[in-house]
Predict the 3D structure of the following.
Amino acid sequence: MKFITYVLLDKKVNSQNIQFVMDIGSYAELAGNIINNNPYQRNRVSKSGSIYNLLKEDILKECIIPPIVLASTSKLMPGSSPDDLLEEVLADYANLKILDGLQRTLSIIDVYNNNRAHFDGLTEKYFIRIEAYLSISDSGILYRMLTLNTGQTPMTLRHQLEILFSKYADGEFDGVKILREVDDSSVRSINDYRFSDLIDGYTSFLEKNELPIDRVDILQTVRTIKFISDEGFEKMEFSDFVNSYRALSLAFDVRFSGWSYPDDVDEDMRTAANPFGREVYKIFNKSQPLSGFGAAIAELISSGTIKGLDDIKSLVPNLEFEENDLIRINKFLDDIRGEAKKIGNGQRIFFKLFFKYLLDHDGSSFLKVSDSLERAKNRAMAEV
């Protein structure tokens, strides 16, 4: 049972918005069919004593809860009445997503399934307020998800950036496994990358700046959507960026196959704190080297030193290594840790300088890993 209360046009996302109410049983049934349709939703909040336990109690007391926001990507026939459009949208489960209200929806499903006799016995139906965006574009969905994310459990900034850049996640990545925040997985090999770390690197490449973007104000993040909201926008080399960095990291992984931080490091090269990375992937599959790489490559391309990202793969086979290069990386990062006001920023500066010296064919340490590390450390210590 449902009743339409209002129909509006959202001109920002060019989508018709229909506001309506639906009885709790009908919504619980609908939600059960669409609950997993949005891969960018947050995980379920399951902490004991959370605000959502209170919400369940409120629903049983027939408290009116905030509206749920849905979105449909179905292409609808023009000229149909709002009732017919809504009927068509709600029947097309595959193209219907929850934009805002996932935790409320999970609470509604739990409460209804565990208390059907209570709700079926009500003399008047208990209604859920809902609004649905019809025929909304993918970029419109992403924009609305961010602007609606003002509830009791906000998304992490990493999750927000994953949503902003989600259109790039389906590129062709040779052997790369991309981990999103909602996957609840960790980096365990040279093949694994967090999507948010790749985004950090790519953002540094686009902005020619290895330091993190200002993430204090949610409005700043929302503004970033303008960068990718154009439906005709090209992927701007994201796949090339990932694959070129992977080629470089694989070169280290092959040269130092099976390496782990040794117990018998010479005293002058021993780290005071825990090493930055005890294995190859723990050094290179992180935000700091990705960001440094992005900024370095952008500067080299801008100066004309290299033509583009494709050049990296041709340079990799010519890298010159020395036996203790990975120990040097850990030692130099440890030295920088002791001097830097912000450790993460200091690490990013070091990696930017390292990759820049390593790949600059006009420089004295071109393709020489050890020399590039030494130069990067000396310069970074002066900058941090």
About this structure: The CA atoms of residues 8 and 17 lie 5 Å apart.
